[in-house]
Design a protein that fits this description.
Length: 172
């Protein structure tokens, strides 16, 4: 009789989330630790409590039901998974760290980005680095390939800056 009653229980309101969850706090370097590995989150979430969801293929970091970061799951130990986009906001405040920022070390951007940086720094000295970081911030909203096409178009002009690159991101 008990088995018959169990058959009529309602289904859960939401599907089962097949992951392991852990509550933690993002450290001062904007990293959260999960299964002996560190995963980056946007710098504005440093020192905030977050929930890490570990799936078989990915790790999602959530803050108040919003996914703030997602990384491929690392199964080895003591590794760090950086997303360079998470640190661009901080670079705007500290542009001198651009050449030394560990999260950006292995960022494989197309060659046109380096050409743009060189040109901006030649034309505007210290402000050129800030302008280049502003161009990098466009990657927060646009894919790398589209920004690269916009940069190539902007490089053909005599003077180029973030606004010129941004203009080429939008259709005519």
């Amino acid at each position: 009789l008990l088995e018959d009653r169990a058959a009529f229980l309602p289904l859960p309101a939401v599907p089962f989330d097949a992951c392991r969850k852990a509550s933690t706090t993002a450290d001062r370097l904007s990293l959260v630790r999960f299964d002996c590995n560190d995963y980056s989150v946007p710098v504005r979430f440093a020192h905030h409590t977050v929930v890490v969801k570990g799936y078989t293929d990915r790790v999602c970091v959530c803050r108040r039901e919003q996914v703030i970061a997602e990384h491929d799951r690392r199964w080895d130990k003591e590794r760090v998974a950086f997303n360079p986009l998470h640190y661009l906001e901080l670079l705007e405040r500290k542009p001198g760290a651009l050449d030394h920022a560990r999260p950006l070390a292995d960022w494989g951007l197309p060659e046109c980005f380096a050409l743009l940086r060189t040109r901006l720094e030649q034309e505007a000295c210290s402000q050129g680095t800030r302008e280049f970081i502003a161009v990098l911030r466009l990657l927060e909203k646009h894919p790398v390939d589209r920004v690269a096409v916009a940069i190539k178009k902007a490089l053909r002009l005599r003077h180029c800056n973030r606004d010129v690159v941004a203009q080429y991101l939008y259709p005519d």
